[in-house]
Design a protein that fits this description.
- By secondary structure, the protein is α/β, with parallel strands linked by helices.
- It has a domain of 175 residues: Rossmann fold (3-Layer(aba) Sandwich).
- Helices cover 35% and strands 26% of the residues.
- The chain contains ten helices and ten strands.
- The strands form two sheets. It has a six-stranded mixed β-sheet, sandwiched between helices. A four-stranded antiparallel β-sheet has the order 2-1-4-5, covered by helices on one side.
- Helix 7 links the parallel strand 7 and strand 8.
- Helix 3 crosses helix 4, helix 3 runs parallel beside helix 6 and helix 4 crosses helix 6.
- The two termini are 36 Å apart.
- The relative contact order is 0.19.
- The protein binds adenosine-5'-triphosphate (ATP).
- The site of adenosine-5'-triphosphate has 11 residues, from helix 1.
- Keywords: ATP-binding, Nucleotide-binding, Translocase, Transport.
Length: 258
């Protein structure tokens, strides 16, 4: 299921404002890639270009190439909706559909994709909730509202909803920033498990989290105030945190700025 993403020469704009410039990188399958960097340097913008969510914002556009296992996601023949199905996303604030039950939250994407037999749906809901390490906590209340779960449980419900449609890539934009430390650890454990099957990309402000969970890390920075963000350096996480090549990376990870 897991696929490689290759990005080359990518710029992203909001109207006339260029938010990121000339980003090129390879994101490996069955691994976790972390994006770190100071506020406003374009990490979330870049993440959203990977599944064509960026262009949903009026006036926003992308130049450059994003290939998923060699397939150009921005080719004129490609439907953005199919890209978003292949490349799922989990947001900063857990956002279950508030009026839907736990079961319906997980089933929602599958129902959009067409008719699925009830028995098959039951199986996929169970597998997805197990995959998100939530099944044991909710199996006796699947028909209760998703909004009634704790924040950490809601985030795992959103992960279950994302994996129910069997994406190839999971993008996570600060998925733990609204969670307490115990729920954060639960999500980190879950990510470690999910990387056996998915390509995972996470934006995080938490250096320890990047160091704990990711295999590779990209450090983004602004070239100057008001200028676009760029990737300063990308490498194995262990090397980025012990022996980065660039001084700006070292300054950032040691807390000297950002
Ligand atoms: N919807 C938007 N409309 C216009 N400009 C935007 C929009 N979203 C982000 N930007 C601008 O794009 C630049 C990059 O923002 P982005 O949110 O991608 O950075 P970030 O590194 O993820 O920041 P943070 O760590 O604070 O979330 C910023 O200058 C920001 O003001």
């Amino acid at each position: 299921m897991s696929k490689q993403i290759q990005v080359s020469g990518l710029d992203a704009y909001y109207g006339g404002h260029k938010a990121i410039e000339d980003v090129s990188m390879t994101i490996e399958p069955r691994s976790i890639t972390a994006f770190i960097g100071p506020s406003g340097c374009g990490k979330s913008t870049f993440l959203r270009t990977l599944n064509r969510m960026h262009e949903v914002i009026p006036g926003a556009r992308v130049e450059g190439k994003v290939l998923l296992d060699g397939e150009d996601l921005y080719a004129s023949t490609v439907e953005p909706v199919s890209v978003r199905r292949m490349i799922g996303m989990v947001f900063q604030r857990p956002n279950p559909f508030p009026t839907m039950s736990i079961y319906e939250n997980v089933a929602a994407g599958l129902r959009l994709n067409g008719r699925v037999a009830k028995s098959e749906l039951d199986g996929i809901v169970e597998t997805s909730l197990k995959g998100a390490n939530l099944w044991n906590e909710v199996k006796d209340r699947l028909n209760k509202p998703g909004a009634g779960l704790s924040g950490g449980q809601q985030q795992r419900l959103c992960i279950a909803r994302a994996i129910a449609v069997q994406p190839q890539v999971l993008l996570m934009d600060e998925p733990c920033s609204a969670l307490d430390p115990i729920s954060t650890l639960a999500i980190e454990d879950l990510m470690a498990k999910l990387k056996d099957d998915y390509t995972i990309v996470i934006v995080t402000h938490n250096m320890q989290q990047a160091a704990r969970v990711s295999d590779r890390t990209a450090f983004f920075n602004l070239t100057a105030q008001g200028k676009p963000g760029k990737v300063v350096e990308m490498d194995e996480t262990s090397r980025m945190f012990t022996n980065p090549t660039e001084k700006a990376t070292e300054d950032y990870i040691t807390g000297r700025f950002g």
